[in-house]
From TrEMBL:
Superkingdom assignment: Bacteria
Needed co-factor(s): Zn(2+)
SUPFAM superfamilies: Aldolase (SSF51569)
CDD domains documented for this protein: ALAD_PBGS
Active site per the UniProt annotation: K194, K247
Residues that span the membrane, as ranges: none
Binding-site positions, Mg(2+): E232
Enzyme class: lyase
Protein name, as recorded: Delta-aminolevulinic acid dehydratase
SMART domains cross-referenced by the UniProt entry: ALAD
Organism (species): Alicyclobacillus cellulosilyticus
Pathway(s) served: Porphyrin-containing compound metabolism; protoporphyrin-IX biosynthesis; coproporphyrinogen-III from 5-aminolevulinate: step 1/4
Length: 327
């Protein structure tokens, strides 16, 4: 008797560890964010996000074929329009870049789940997620435009619309509009808990969506708040959300866990742009082993309670899995 427990017995070799492993990630859990840019020929790499590109429509078609081949179940589309105006009209035009991309993806790969980000910030010169009036982001007028945008995405064939604007009441407005147009089967993945985060820096450069004045703190959540996340999520559930999301990822695993415990809905984590950029930068310097860091990160999201994960690493993760039989 040595008077202590021998936890190491289950760690002694690989097959013992396999037996008692509690969590795992798989390609089934991954959603790949894709940027489509109106008027672009070919593709253009995003400086702060090596390996992530803006795609013109043709290059996008080729990318989608590759993703489908890799077995990635879903993409989420972000549009970069050629024109911006006060009413964000490019967000809900029938021939807007996202609408065209949805049609192109669905025409060739009807099984691929196509999600769309529903927001206005890429589409108006103020770079805010809602309508701007007298320097303020006005809530209720924004709802009409967000709902129009979601309906136009559904019309193009989107399976899931994902509002990321953080206006109050958007889930209800979008649900009502979708149903009124007959899109009762289109699901809403709500960015229910989206923090005003510095971790979106590279995305804003990528999406040309940095605010022209002020910041997003009057609508995105204060990183200091955790209980508020439960109130935000509860409203979205009441309003008809079909799935909830927490964003950013690793710095908010506590929030992810608390939503997992409070709501039985499917739950997503968004592993955001700066999280990707930091991994890439450190890996380039040879300071970390990229694959190990990414795999551990994906596992952490699963352990904290995510059903699926939006990540810019999805494509390379799928390639790693393809190249090895078991981990
Ligand atoms: C649009 C939107 C943003 C992200 C997703 N949708 C930027 C923002 O809110 O500023 C961030 C994604 C990322 O950083 O990877 N509102």
């Amino acid at each position: 008797m040595d008077g202590f427990r021998r936890h190491r017995r289950w760690r002694a070799h690989a097959n013992l560890r396999r037996l008692v492993r509690e969590h795992a990630w798989q390609v089934d859990d991954l959603v790949y964010p894709v940027f489509v840019r109106e008027g672009l020929n070919g593709k253009e790499e995003i400086a702060a996000m090596p390996g992530v590109y803006h795609f013109g429509l043709d290059a996008f078609r080729r990318e989608v074929a590759e993703l489908a081949e890799l077995g990635i179940p879903a993409i989420i589309l972000f549009g970069i329009p050629a024109d911006k105006d006060e009413w964000s009209t490019s967000a809900y035009r029938e021939d807007g870049i996202v609408q065209q991309a949805v049609r192109a993806a669905k025409a060739e790969h009807p099984d691929l789940v196509v999600m769309t980000d529903v927001c206005l910030c890429q589409y108006n010169p103020a770079g805010h997620c809602g309508v701007v009036r007298d320097g303020k982001i006005v809530n209720d007028e924004s709802l009409t435009l967000l709902a129009k945008t979601a309906v136009s995405h559904a019309q193009a064939g989107a399976d899931v619309v994902a509002p990321s604007d953080m206006m109050d009441g958007r889930v209800a407005a979008i649900r009502q509009a979708l149903d009124a147009h007959g899109w009762t089967d289109v699901a809403i993945l709500s960015y229910a808990v989206k923090y005003a985060s510095a971790f979106y820096g590279p995305f804003r450069e990528a999406a040309h969506s940095a605010p022209a004045f002020g910041d997003r703190r009057s609508y995105q959540m204060d990183p200091a708040n955790a209980r508020e996340a439960l109130r935000e999520a509860a409203s979205d559930v009441e309003e008809g959300a079909d799935a909830l999301m927490v964003k950013p990822g690793l710095p908010y695993l506590d929030v992810l866990r608390s939503l997992r415990e409070a709501f039985p809905l499917p739950l997503a984590a968004y592993h955001v742009s700066a999280e990707y950029s930091m991994v890439k930068a450190a890996a380039e310097k040879g300071w970390i082993d990229e694959r190990s860091v990414v795999e551990e990160t994906l596992l952490a999201f699963k352990r904290a309670g995510a059903d699926f994960i939006l990540t810019y690493h999805a494509k390379e993760a799928a390639k790693w899995v393809k190249a090895s039989s078991w981990r």
